[in-house]
Amino acid sequence: MEPQLAAVVLAAGLGSRMRSERAKVLHEIAGRALLARALEPIASLAPAPIVVVVGYQAEAVEAAARAALPQAGMRFARQAEQRGTGDAARTALDAIGPDFGGEILIGCGDMPLIAAATLGAFVRAHRAAGAALSFISAEPDDPAAYGRVVRDASGAVAAIVEARDATPATLALGEINAGVYLAEAALLRAAIGELRADNAQHEYYLTDIVAIARRRGVRIHAWRAPAAAEFAGVNSREEMARMEESIRQNINRRLMAAGVTLIDPATAYIAPEAEIGRDAVIGPNVRILGRSRIGAGVVIEGTAWLDGVVVGERSRLKICVRAENCEIGPDCEIGPFANLREGTALEGHNRIGNFVETKKARLGRGSKASHLSYLGDAIIGRETNIGCGVITVNYDGYDKHVTKIGDRCMVGCDTQLIAPVTVGDDVYVASGTTIVRDVAAGALVVSQHPQREKPGWTAAWRDRHANHPKAQKHDAGE
Ligand code: UD1
Ligand code: CA
Questions:
Q1: Does the annotation count 474 as an active-site position?
Q2: Looking at domain 5-231, what is its CATH homologous superfamily?
Q3: I need a surface site. Which of 50, 61, 145, 431 has the fewest CB within 10 A?
């Protein structure tokens, strides 16, 4: 039987090299917090419990972890003072408890690129090697500030030495510690108990468990990562921007290989979890975030910001569309300059034109709002035309109210609907109407003031202003 697996994610540090008011793990990479990206592959192994070590901005980091994995049973361990990765791991062991007898996987909250499959392979390799302690090693092009893996003459792992504590000869070693460990719980407890802070940073280094395990004569396995890039940690804004760029390039390459046209891949910012169908065309300067799903043949002309948006097949988003947590059905035409806020649902064949804002608005198939409207908390039927400048008056200063409009209506320009109000099917609303009461199906509704006319009024008005400094501009012949 496979041993029980628990996981620890270290996320208590401030990340001082970020020079930020915000904890490092809360910074976003490809539209999602570093911590969320680091937690997902670990959660895919279904460890129990997952302990996240928090400290700096603990509440905010805990909230981000919960938001990232709402289902997973997570525990939080507070590290009172950031005294090093070894001290952080000790805090987590306390949260796991002394009775846990399985294996403990330890990773860092600042490593957003690790693939779930890689972690799975690491766990299997550890078990296959019969090791008591394993860690992931890599040989990146630039070993930089990573801890170096020191081996003895026989090639066996002897220790991990932090760059700051390393001699030039050790610094010259190309094999580094990726920062992911797997150990028997009993060994980990014992080794962490032996940690000392006698190093350059006066911290408890988790990495010292390797030398301790060696002294104890247990089997140590350094598992060589197939792709070093997966274990890049983020320590500064520059590293973050570089990582963002490399993620973006990978995503864009994958999308283009799958049949998506990117007019300018350098300005297509697409989240890893977004899906884009074949023959979709993504114009310049487009961000597609979250679990957005863009259907086949969709055209996004350019300059768009979409987060959590489903777009049906063949729909066209003209220049400048912002849409968040909403559904756009197939064969729609949106924009230019449209703002589709959360809860907007367009059934299909809809048109939302320039300077239209929607929020929690449902439009049935074929309905249109082509110009200058606000549709909030609105349920609109099929084949209804919302004229220019129509406003749902949904807010009374305390509550939001719903406007319902039926099928096949013609809502005239400059109409206000004072919610809550219901307009039946096949209603004609004369332009300029203020609807305050429900309207029966099939009716014409008019609330305009009667038109009055005063013949010759303009000439009289101008005469009265004959000596006004601006009077000459109305003079005939100019
Ligand atoms: C660590 C390793 C290094 C490895 C590198 C891989 C140690 C001593 N060094 O260095 O060998 O090559 O990761 O990326 O472990 N943290 C806490 N509490 C603390 C200190 C840190 O929770 O008191 C957390 C941080 O929030 C971070 C993680 O531990 O998520 C790693 O800490 P960091 O300071 O980034 O370690 P590195 O210097 O990168
Ligand atoms: Ca780090």
A1: no
A2: Spore Coat Polysaccharide Biosynthesis Protein SpsA; Chain A (3.90.550.10)
A3: 145
